[in-house]
Design a protein that fits this description.
Blueprint: E1 2-7, E2 10-13, E3 18-26, E4 28-39, E5 46-52, E6 57-59, E7 67-72, E8 77-82, E9 91-101, E10 106-110, E11 114-119
Parallel strand pairs: 2-11
Antiparallel strand pairs: 1-3, 3-8, 4-5, 4-9, 5-6, 7-8, 9-10, 9-11
Length: 120
C-alpha cells in the first residue's frame, strides 16, 4: 500500500505565497509521475501541475508563471511552490502519485487534501 501525506496549506492574502509538500511512502518500486490537483467548492477536480520521473512538467494555463512543481526523487516527495496567489486559487489541493508497487502492480494514490484559502 502506498500512502501520501500532504502539508503546507493555509490562509494567505492575495499576492502571497505557499509551498505544498507531499511525501509518498510504503511499498513503492517506482514512481512514474507525481502531480497536484485542486477542487473548489461546487467545481470538479482539476489538474494543477504534474511532473514525470524524467522531470518533464505540465501546468494548467491558469497557474503558468505563478506555480512551480518540483520533486525530490530520493525522498519520494513532490512540492508545489505557489506564488502570486489569487482568490480563485482557493481550493482543496490533492496530491496524486502513480507508479508501480513492490509487487510490480500499477498504483494511483491520492493524498488526503490540504486546504488553500486566498483572501482578497
Amino acid at each position: 500500500q502506498v500512502r501520501l501525506v500532504e502539508s503546507g496549506g493555509g490562509l494567505v492574502q492575495a499576492g502571497g505565497s505557499l509551498r505544498l509538500s507531499c511525501a509518498a511512502s510504503g511499498s513503492i518500486f517506482s514512481i512514474n509521475a507525481m502531480g497536484w490537483f485542486r477542487q473548489a467548492p461546487g467545481k470538479q477536480r482539476e489538474l494543477v501541475a504534474t511532473i514525470t520521473s524524467g522531470g518533464s512538467t505540465n501546468y494548467a494555463d491558469s497557474v503558468k508563471g505563478r506555480f512551480t512543481i518540483s520533486r525530490d526523487a530520493a525522498k519520494n516527495t513532490v512540492y508545489l511552490q505557489m506564488n502570486s496567489l489569487k482568490p480563485e486559487d482557493t481550493a482543496v489541493y490533492y496530491c496524486n502519485v502513480v507508479g508501480y508497487n513492490s509487487g510490480r502492480d500499477y498504483f494511483s494514490s491520492w493524498g488526503q487534501g490540504t486546504q488553500v484559502t486566498v483572501s482578497s
